[in-house]
Each structure stands twice: as C-alpha cells, then as structure tokens.
Target: Dipeptidase
Amino acid sequence: MLIDALQFSKPGRERFQEWRDAGLAAVHVTTAIWEDSTETMRELGRWQRLLTEHADLLTEGRGADDIRAAKAEGRTAVVFGFQNSTPFEDDLDLVGAFHQAGVRIAQLTYNTQNSAGAGCWEHEDTGLSRTYGVNLIREMNQVGMLVDVSHCNERTCLEAFEASEKPVAITHANPRDYVGGDVELAVRNKSADVLKTMAQQDGVIGLSMYPRLAPNGTDCSLDDFCDMVAWTVDLIGVDHVGLGSDFYTGHGDEELVWWRQGRWSRSPMVPISGVVEFPGWFDAAKGYRDVLDGLRKRGMTDEEVAKVAGENWLRLFDATFGTFHKQAG
Amino acid sequence: MLIDALQFSKPGRERFQEWRDAGLAAVHVTTAIWEDSTETMRELGRWQRLLTEHADLLTEGRGADDIRAAKAEGRTAVVFGFQNSTPFEDDLDLVGAFHQAGVRIAQLTYNTQNSAGAGCWEHEDTGLSRTYGVNLIREMNQVGMLVDVSHCNERTCLEAFEASEKPVAITHANPRDYVGGDVELAVRNKSADVLKTMAQQDGVIGLSMYPRLAPNGTDCSLDDFCDMVAWTVDLIGVDHVGLGSDFYTGHGDEELVWWRQGRWSRSPMVPISGVVEFPGWFDAAKGYRDVLDGLRKRGMTDEEVAKVAGENWLRLFDATFGTFHKQAG
Model:
C-alpha cells in the first residue's frame, strides 16, 4: 500500500503512468492554491474529465476503501485537496458543497494569513482565528474533510490541533530540527512541538523530497532522506510518519509566480528561483521503492515500512474522510 | 459643512430627505460587509439607480470638491465605502477597479480576521498581515482610497498607521478610555494610543451615538455625547475629531444576523439583541445641530465647531481620495 500525500504535477497521462509504475495506490493532488470557488469547480471539472479519459490508470479516492479497491485493481486513486481554504470563500456551506464534489483534504492556509489562520510567512504570534478558523475546522470535522496544516505557521498548527476533534494531517513538510535553517524554505518545516502534538492526536506527517525543504537541500541524497525518516519515526513513532513528496513537474515560471504571490502581491516576497529540480535518485517511478528499501536497511520491519509507505495514511483517511452526504456530528 | 462619516440605514427617499433637512453635505454609506466583488457591484448598481432617481436630493461624492459642490447646490454627496475588504477578494487589481466604480473608503477588516488584518473580536496579538495587509494599504494609498480601521483590533490599527503613507480614518468609533467597558460593544472602541497615533498622522475619528459604543450606552444623553467630543478634542486636538454616527434604521433582524456572522458562522458570537434604538435626542434631521450647539456651549469657537462638523473630513478626503484614474505613486 503506497500513498503519496502530496504531488502537484501538471496532470497528464505521462504522470499517471509513472504513478502506476511506482505502484501508487493513491496520490493526493492539489486543485486550489488561491482559486475561488468557481475557479476551483472548473479545476475539479477538468480532473473529472481526466479521470474518465484515463480510467484504465485512475479512479477517484473519496474514501479509504476506494484506495484499497484501486490497489486491488492496479489503478491509482486520486484524492482531491486544496492547499488553501480560499475556495470556501468564508462560507461554511461551501465546505459541504466541495465535500460533495469530492474534495477530502484542505489546508487552512497557504503561506499567508487568511480569515481562518496564518501561514508560515506571517508573524509567529498570529494564529487560528477564534471566529471563522474554529468554525471551519468544526465544519470540516463534521462533513468529513481532513484538516491539513502543512503551510500554517507554528501557532496556527497548535491551535488547529486544539480545535479539531479529529486527527490533523501535515501532508507535506519536514522536521525543522532535523533539516535545520539552511534550506531555502526552512520556515515551512515543523517544530518538534508541532510534530509531537500532531502525533498525540493520531495525525500523520508526509515527509518530502522537495529540495527547498529537504535535508541538504538540492544535494539531498537517498541516505539523507532515509535518515530523516528514521529520525522522525524515533521522535513521534512509526504510526505517524508517511510520505508526501511535494513532487511537481511540468509547470513553468508563470505557475510558480501564481503560487508565490497569487493576486495579493505585485512582486514576490520570497525570491522566485525557478522550477525546482528534484533529486536525481527520486525518480518518480522508482524513488519510493528505494526509500522503502533504505528504511529496511535501517532496521525497520516490513510492518513498519508498510505503515510509512501508506498504511498510516489509510488509517487517517478512514478516521477523517466522510464518504456519505454528512456524517453524524 | 456637515459630514457624517458613517450611516448604514436602508436607503430610501425618507432618509435622503432627512439628510437634506439636517443640512448634510456628505454621508459615507456602506456598500459591503461580507459581500464578495459581484455582490458588491450589484449593491453599487442599486445605489447608482437611487442617485439617478433622487438627483434632486443626492449626488455622488468621488472627491472633496464634489462635497463642496453638493453643499452649494443644497444636495447631499453620497460617499461609497466598505466596512470590510471582502469585495477585493485578495486581488490588488480589484482595489483600482472599485475605485473606478466610485468607492473611496474601505475598512481593512470588519469584526474578524481576514487576509489583511484582524478585527476587534479576535485576539489582540493578531495584526496586519505583512503580506497582503501591507500590499493592500499600499494599493489603497496609490489609487486614492481612504484606509479605515474602525472595526480593526488594536494591533491592526497601529500596524496600519505604520504601513500607510497617507492619513488613516476611524470613521465610526469612540474613545475606550472615556466610554469604559460597560457598553455592549466596548471592544469596538479605540485606545488612547490608537487615537494619538492616528492624529499624529493627520487622521480623523468620527464619534458615534450608536448606543452599543456610546457613553452611558442606551442612556447616552446629548450632554454625555458632547462631553465625549470635548474630551476627545482635548486628547488628540480639534483637527482630528469629526462625526461618524453609525446611525442605521430600516433594517430587520435578518440584516443584523448577516452583519454579525456573515456566512462564516452558524450562530452569533456576540448575542444579537435586536435592531438598536438610537437616543431620542439624536433625531436624524436635528441631532447634528444640537451636538454642534452643545460644543459651542462648551466653549468651542465657531471655527473649531466647523472642523468637527465636517472640515476635518474634507481635509482628510482631499488628502486621500484620488479623483482621477490613478494618482502618481
């Protein structure tokens, strides 16, 4: 059971074939960064067309059972998610509406402050709003949408854990204490406090090979990555660590500019250094297997490796995705 | 020159006639609270229709000169504003677009946190976002839209003053130190620190008879109000005090619920105690004159009373409203 808890490549058959070659039972894909509700519905519509056109390779992952079925059928379940809460437009009813449309995971914020909370580029003392932020998490808990705090700042993460009645995910980030402050987007990584609190609530972090967050940055080796996985397992336990590569390819500078500054800025706050090259060893098809082999070499049992590979995500999805209209409160 | 820097009554000829009877040269009206860009454009369209239908009483106030002309013609200039930045949808281009559509004043936030800053119902340590918040103020400065922090919390006010190159308004609020903590919405009132910093930058506060903010609350007398005006003039100087009644009438509970909780909550965070009764002495047509008489009785000169009545707002509008397509940076 292999699951990647975040990829954001330009979708197309080449990618979908890679997913199959890698043996991925599920990939969480991004359908919104700064988009509003209408723009996001259009993107979901484009994905529905892709699911139909490439039904030999893909299926939709609305629940953990869809992922189990996908694995059995030799297909990859696509789990739809947002990297920001902009599509909800501060309207609680839109949370249920997007759940109906298939969305199962949403970050409260991207890198900046919004009505719900604060991203990692803001001051550290700004957190979850006690108004919409608390209500949004309650609504997501209720309709069955997994709360993701991957890009939130420290205080928003901690307050989100407190506000959520269900476990919370960090789909793609790394431990700050391990990686250190030298990587380009070090501020995106998570403190030990955040990781431990997430784990206490039975949440899961997806560790990433994204060079701007990874140990040794662009020089991150397979060993560097596996060492980080082992270190994180030691810190918070093997039940709370998974993979969330943040892998992307196929996008140009225009998309990068959109991700970095949306429409809220006329210039980048963080230098835009071009589309990133992922480490050579992280071949989209083969890289996952090499990581899992590396973990076995570090003394992890098959059962432990299976948890990191995907079983932890499956447990979390079972606990948080509502697969029906609305879950009972 | 009499200007009310905020009224939010249901618009109609009865109100417009009252404005004329009061001798109001300008009224700043609210066209958005939680509305998005499309909803706000529709509201502005409804107002354009009203301006046409009631052109004997009304004109549009896009610049201070429009207000001077309105006074000379015996009409009231309507100045369009927002009590929140939701219509901009975090898109800097929409600031200029709404300026083109006639909007000249906008609050950064209503009562809650958004991408730009935090309202008075949030934690006090959440402030202006260093991302969109700073950029939004720069854009408003540039296109000629007055920044209003009436509903912002302490830190957001102070950081907005710092970020703005032009004076900032508090169109409707009262001094917290004078009114005290017993009124229903005491948290909406402003600290001495905020008032002084605003004044140093040549901003203006509009003092309000709204019983939930006013001295002695629902029992606020004409004397109570005039004493507060005099106290505020003593604190920050006569150049920085004006009127901003926050007067409203004609709305029902449904509108109150919308103002208080938008779509971001399913229940009120602050009890909804019904549509407010303004003090009996604040008759919409005669109340302003009684206040100005009361100030004269407290020893203010005609020149000083004129400043409070409207000249201060006119100076601030001259300094901040762009009347052309775009002002030079």
The domain at 2-320 of chain B is CATH 3.20.20.140 (TIM Barrel). Chain B touches chain A through 34 residues (CB under 8 Å). The beta strands of chain B are 2-7, 24-30, 58-60, 76-82, 103-107, 146-148, 169-170, 204-207, 241-243.
